[in-house]
Amino acid sequence: MTTKNDRLIELCLTAGKLMLMYGAETYRVEDTMKRMAVAGGMRDVNSFVTTTGIFLSGMLDDDDDVMQMIRIVDRFQDLSKVTEVNHLSREFVSGSMTIQEARAELKRIEKQPMNYPLWLIYLASAVGGGAFSYLIGNSMFDMLPASIGGLVSTLALVLFQHYLQAKFFSEYLAAFFGGITALILVHSGFGTNLDQIIIGSVIPLVPGVPLTNSVRDLMAGDLISGLARGAEAALTSLSIAAGVATAVSLFIS
Q: Are residues 154 and 74 both part of a single domain?
């Protein structure tokens, strides 16, 4: 039979899992879990978070020490869900929400679709690719092919990630097809500056959030998480560079 303590620990771990999965910083996840556990009646609470696992320990009402962990496999970028879990934790800590209500709300947050539909993500990738190419090259003629390349890169990333379930290989293939698109457009006369168009094509793939969180974790003293996030961002950047290099090598040869 599930006890109140079991439900409390499950609540804290689920909240931490959702925050970490969708792009929250390590120190924010640890602080949120600790505050929720203390508000639920746990004592001597300690939380430890890495990019792939969450640990929570504390003392329960019956003076028994408990420690549980949860494994993190998938990671996405949806800061709206992080905000929702943050708001829920404040409501729970203030006493405005019971454990049962908080669990139900977390399940709703977990099951709800991403904040932005795919068509809007594709549109933003196209606009971002074209705008960034103009910023670095000041050529309005190359904005449209860069937008097409950015759209193709994002389409390929979503498609390959869905079927392959291999993050870095999917990013490699997405950069490859984005680079091929840019090369074809330029050699067809639909664009002049190849470098500008290629950069615009792959800019939607750049790991901005992981890199930012890596720096914030390192500054907060979370060295393991900071280095792990930095390594993830570096591998993503390497995958993008390798994809573009493969496209250029094949096309030129």
A: no
